[in-house]
Structure formats: C-alpha cells, structure tokens
C-alpha cells in the first residue's frame, strides 16, 4: 500500500508551507526523491498524475504548495494568499497580477523554501541524499534553479521557465556556473510568456544542459503530453 502524508515546515519569513509526500510500493531503506514545484496560480495537484507514474518507477515524490498557493497561505499566523483570477483580459493584465503577487508573498524566497524542504527530507524521511531531483513548471521551474547552490541536486527539469529576475539574475548565473549535474530545459517554440527565450538563456549558462523545444504555444504542465517520454528517459 502506498504510504502518503501531508507534511509542513516553516519558512525563514514565517510562511507555514505544506507538501505531500508519497513513497513507492516497493520497500527500500532509502528512495530517490523527486520534488515538484508548480506554476503560478495553481497547486501541487497539477503534478498528481505524473507523480503517480514516477512512483511506479521507484521514486518517492514530494508535491509542494508554493508560498501563497494551495494550503501554504499562512504567514506568521495571518492569511497571505494569492487569489487567482483565470479570466485575465490580456497577457499584460496577467503579468501585472504576477508582479503584485510577487510583492505580496515574495517569490524570490521560494528557492530557500525548497532548500528547507530538502533539509527536512534528509533529516526525517527515507530519502537518498545523493538522488534528489527537482522538477518545476513556469514559476516553479525558475525557482528550482538557485536551489542547486544550496543543496546537492542530482538532476533538474525546468518546464517553461520564466525570467531569471524573478529570483535574481546574478543568483541564477552563479548557481548554474557551479552546477555540473544534468539539467533539462523545456519550452514550446511560441510560448506566450517568453519561455523559449529564457530556456535558451539558461541553457547558455549551463555546464551540462539539454534543451528541448516543441512546436506550438503551450506553457507549463500542458506540455507534459508531448515531453513526458523525454523526461522519463532523462531521469533514467
């Protein structure tokens, strides 16, 4: 029977962060783990189907609700959440809302949050510290990159990453300059939020990168149907 539980940690600035950890059916002393970081305005649930498939391949999975999203909405005892409206009048309207949300919950702290999650897993769970993998989409993809300067990350997959300015361009460059393990960047050719451009930028600053560009204008987890096979091969 699959072992599953909701876990919580507190961020450096007082956010109570929630994550959902599940182990594969196979009994082992230590498991490789994949930590999932979702895109803006969604929750950990966007990864549920893909995570199940990866558990069947022997990976433990930790699905995070990023600060201000899902159940990670209380900071120092007070609610601080992003109220997402799916009916934006234009792309500029969405970008404006993203910037306001950033000021509200501070997205630049997400990499630090993820580093804390890794500390928790190593100290409290049956996780192989040498096989920690990060997968992110959009905001989540951008946010996992600086984690490699704080933790030992085995592999990383960034689907539709955004601007490095979200977490700090200097921080991104420094992180990637010292990261020697494999990283895969994925974008659609006509991504409406500029991920094609950003993916090429990250690739140019990587030591051991793979860049996968697919046709169309899909963004984030909608690309999984096209790219899942490539990701599974990359994770082997």
Automatic annotation (TrEMBL):
Pfam families: Abhydrolase_1
Keyword entries, A-Z: Hydrolase
GO-annotated molecular function: hydrolase activity
Chain ranges of the AB hydrolase-1 domain: 32-142
InterPro entries linked: AB_hydrolase_1, AB_hydrolase_fold, FrsA_esterase
Tree of life domain: Bacteria
Similarity field: Belongs to the AB hydrolase superfamily. FUS2 hydrolase family.
Protein name: Alpha/beta hydrolase fold
Annotated source species: Persephonella hydrogeniphila
């Amino acid at each position: 029977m699959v072992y599953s539980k909701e876990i919580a940690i507190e961020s450096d600035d007082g956010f109570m962060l929630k994550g959902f950890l599940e182990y594969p059916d196979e009994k082992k002393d230590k498991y490789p783990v994949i930590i999932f970081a979702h895109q803006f305005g969604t929750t950990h649930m966007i990864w549920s189907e893909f995570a199940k498939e990866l558990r069947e391949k022997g990976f433990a999975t930790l699905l995070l609700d990023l600060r201000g999203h899902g159940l990670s909405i209380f900071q120092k005892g007070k609610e601080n959440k992003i109220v997402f409206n799916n009916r934006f009048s234009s792309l500029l309207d969405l970008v404006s809302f993203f910037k306001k949300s950033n000021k509200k919950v501070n997205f630049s702290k997400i990499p630090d949050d993820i580093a804390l999650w890794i500390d928790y897993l190593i100290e409290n769970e049956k996780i192989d510290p040498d096989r920690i993998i990060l997968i992110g989409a959009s905001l989540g993809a951008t946010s996992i990159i600086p984690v490699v300067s704080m933790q030992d990350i085995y592999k990383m997959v960034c689907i539709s990453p955004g601007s490095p300015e979200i977490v700090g361009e200097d921080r991104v460059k420094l992180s990637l300059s010292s990261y020697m393990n494999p990283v895969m960047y994925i974008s659609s050719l006509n991504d409406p939020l500029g991920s094609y451009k950003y993916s090429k930028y990250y690739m140019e600053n990587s030591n051991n990168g793979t860049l996968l560009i697919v046709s169309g204008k899909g963004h984030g987890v909608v690309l999984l149907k096209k790219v899942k096979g490539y990701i599974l091969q990359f994770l082997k």
